[in-house]
Amino acid sequence: MVNFIENDEHFILVSLLITVCMQLSFFAIAYGLQIDKVTDFAGTANFLLLATVTLWFGEDFSFPKIIGSLMVILWSLRLGAYLSYRILVWGEDNRFDEMRSKFWSFLGFWIMQILWVFLTCLPVVYFNSLDSPDSVNTLASIGISMFSIGLIIEAWADYSKFNHKLNGEKWCTSGLWKYSRHPNYFGNILLWFGIFVFCYSYEVPLWTVIGPLWTTFLLLFVSGIPLLEASADKKYGNDSEYLQYKSNTSVLIPWFNSSK
């Protein structure tokens, strides 16, 4: 097969083109049918597609390249399956209640999703554009460990929260949620920094750290913690038990409850 993606710039441009086309196509479906069932699938599936396509067109199936892409693929399959099942059970995503019918507001969300996918995936996309790396080194092993721990934390937290909501209880305090108000986000941030560390160990440039930094920014200041904290405050802000839980429990990093 002739490799028509010759350098890192071409890999990045092709990845951006794939992401824009995929997300805008799913936006058209979501807006046209006024549904939420394709939103999370479109995001997670895009990660899988970028990792697979750039690995394939790089024509380098060395062990480190496979591991780097496989981490993204495993994460996207796990989270995509969970989110797709969750939306089928819930029927709709109330995050979009106020924007679903507003073209420009809803498009704005999908543009943010384009940036999320493209920027977050940059370390692996760039890595797949490089020459064949050596065997797994010490720093790469640290990255794999960070990814593995983060993936376990994220999956465990999602499982606990999903079961909690099925039981119709209030705020979740089971499992890792006893030690963090958003342990799934902590796991997500940790695993993406792990992927970056893995890729960086093979001379991927430092500027690609914008990927996990962008994810961290979104979760901490835009569409993650701020929205969920505001929603919880609105529901339970007058409940003394909730206020005590919020006061005593770490917002992100799982840590021992500060209550005595």
Automatic annotation (TrEMBL):
UniProt entry tagged with the keyword Transmembrane helix: yes
Membrane-spanning residues: 12-31, 38-57, 63-85, 106-127, 139-157, 185-203, 209-228
Annotated PROSITE patterns: S5A_REDUCTASE (PS50244)
GO CC field: membrane
Presence of keyword Methyltransferase: no
Keywords: Membrane, Transmembrane, Transmembrane helix
Organism from which the protein derives: Marine Group III euryarchaeote CG-Epi1
Entry-linked Gene3D superfamilies: 1.20.120.1630
InterPro entries: UstE-like
The protein, known as: Uncharacterized protein
